[in-house]
Design a protein that fits this description.
InterPro entries: Acyl_CoA_acyltransferase, Bact_Acetyltransf, GNAT_dom. This is GNAT family N-acetyltransferase. Keywords: Acyltransferase, Transferase. By secondary structure, the chain is of the alpha+beta class. Helices cover 25% and strands 37% of the residues. The protein has one domain: Gcn5-related N-acetyltransferase (GNAT) (Aminopeptidase, 3-Layer(aba) Sandwich). The strands form two sheets. A seven-stranded mixed β-sheet has the order 1-2-3-4-5-9-6, with helices on one face. A two-stranded antiparallel sheet has the order 7-8. The longest helix has 15 residues. The protein is globular. The chain starts with a strand and ends in a 6-residue tail after the last strand.
Amino acid sequence: MSLQIQEVPAMSAPMELLLLADPSEDKVRSYFPRSKCFVASNGEAVVGACLVQPLGAGAYELMSIAIQPAHQKSGHGTVLLKWVIDFFRKSGASQIEVGTGTFGYQLAFYQRHGFRVTAIDRDFFIKNYPEPVFEDGIQLFDMLRLTLRYTADVA
């Protein structure tokens, strides 16, 4: 069965799923007022979700993207990310950005889809989360900012 992706009101976003990508419920909820929310479904089951916010001047930020653990490594994350990239390209965006940890599969995931590191937000995870955030047993300190710039020849 193919993945169906649709926009839903941000307040209807599947919180338990989004918390897989960002451990702070308060932080995720703070994204809702300005975000577009997209959910990916396989039949009746929601398998993925993401939140995207406008930054201004044709730029958007992917605030959160997550796939249910049972559906990870099945290509659903790639389908959702490519769909979001295409959606904003078609809407006239000039770029889409994302922030992620300095290592791990997420970094490679974004880079495989054309995102390039454009900045380092030093001590982001220390300054913005009350509890330490760990990835693969290693504490995250800095956030890498990655950007995908759209060009006229992108199909």
